[in-house]
Design brief:
Radius of gyration: 13 Å
Number of helices: 2
Number of domains: 1
Number of strands: 7
Largest sheet: 4 strands, mixed
Shape: globular
Length: 98
């Protein structure tokens, strides 16, 4: 599926049950104060957005599912706007964007 905007992708993911918001920390993902190590979640969907003229508009939206059934999305920049994170998280995210 192709989306025109990041918000369109997030809204559709929410409609399909990816209702939680994941956030990055150095060596894990966090959702509602619960931490997920790289082994505790799977990336099931990836949508990449490239700004036509501004590198700051570059983002990737991930549909993520925790082994405990938690489903949500993570938005991360790439290139100049990527968040600092631990090596294991970087490896897990990168294998789904190429």
């Amino acid at each position: 599926m192709q989306y025109e905007t990041v918000s369109e992708a997030i809204n559709d993911l929410k409609k399909r049950g990816f209702s939680e918001d994941f956030n990055l920390e150095e060596n894990c993902l966090v959702c509602n104060a619960k931490k997920f190590s790289p082994e505790e979640f799977e990336i099931t969907e990836v949508y990449r957005f490239e700004g036509p003229s501004d590198p700051a508009d570059q983002a990737i939206v991930y549909g993520i599912e925790g082994k405990d059934g938690t489903r949500g999305s993570l938005v991360n920049g790439f290139g100049y706007s990527s968040e600092p994170m631990g090596e294991a998280i970087v490896k897990k995210l990168k294998m789904h964007t190429h």
